[in-house]
Amino acid sequence: MAPFSEFLLFTGIGALAQLVDGALGMAYGVTSAGMLLGVGMPPALASASVHYAETFTCGASGLSHWWAGNVQRRLFLVLAIPGVIGAVLGATALAHMPPIWIRYFLTPYLLGMGLFLLFRTTRRKDRRRDVPRGTGVLGFVAGVLDAAGGGGWSALTVTTMVARGQEPRVVIGSVHLAKCVVSLAASITFLLSIGESKLHVVLGLILGGVIAAPFGAWLVRRLPPRVSTLMAGLTVLALGIYNCYHLLRS
Description:
- Keywords: Cell membrane, Membrane, Transmembrane, Transmembrane helix.
- It is found in: Cell membrane; Membrane.
- By secondary structure, the protein is an all-alpha fold.
- Helices cover about 80% and strands about 0% of the residues.
- It has ten helices and no strands.
- It has helices at about 5-25, 30-40, 45-65, 75-95, 100-120, 135-150, 155-165, 170-195, 200-220, 225-250.
- Helix 6 (about 135-150) packs antiparallel against helix 7 (about 155-165).
- The chain is globular, with a radius of gyration of 17 Å.
- The mean pLDDT is about 80.
C-alpha cells in the first residue's frame, strides 16, 4: 500500500475511533487499536501509536467538550492529577507485568458495570454535580490500568461516575480533558522506554481524531442522559465480551 493511501487509511481509523469515543466517552483505544491490528500492524506498534496519538486527539476532544460546556473544572483536576501519577507508574511497570493480569481484573469489572448501567436506564434518579469521595483514587487506578493495560481510562472512570449518578455529558467532557494530560504523561514514559512509532501512522490518527472531535462533543450534548447511559452500558458490555474472548483464546 502506498504511503499516502496508508495515511488516508489511518486518518479514517482515527476519525471513526474519535467519533465513537467523543460520543460515548470511551473506546478510542479499543476501536483504533483493534482496527490497526486488523490491517496487520504488530501489537506493540499499534499500542504505541495509539498512545502517542491520544495525546493530541484527546486534547482536541477535551477542548471541544470544554467549549460545549461539558467540563466541570474540579472534576477534571481531581481526575487528572492522580491519573498522571498512575499513568507514569503503570507505563513503567508495563515491562515487568504480563498484560493478561490486567485483562483478568478488567474483564469482570466491565461485564458487571455494563450490566449495571443497562439496569440503571430503567430507573429515574436525580443527577449529581458534586465530585464524590474516592474520585481521586479512581483517577489513579484508571491511570495505572490505562498505561499498563493499553486502555481502560474512560471505561473505568466514565462507567463508575455515571453509575454513581453523575451527569453523563459532564463526566464525558471532564474525562476527555483529563485524558489528554494522562496520555501525555504516559506517552513521555513510553517514548523513553519504547521509542518512536511510525510518523505517518500517528499523524493519520491525529488528523482523523481532530477532524471528528467537534462532532462527538456536539452529539453527546444533544443525547438525553438515559440514551447516553444506555449506549455506554452496551459499549462497556461489548468491551467485556471482547476481553472474555481473548482470555479464552490465550
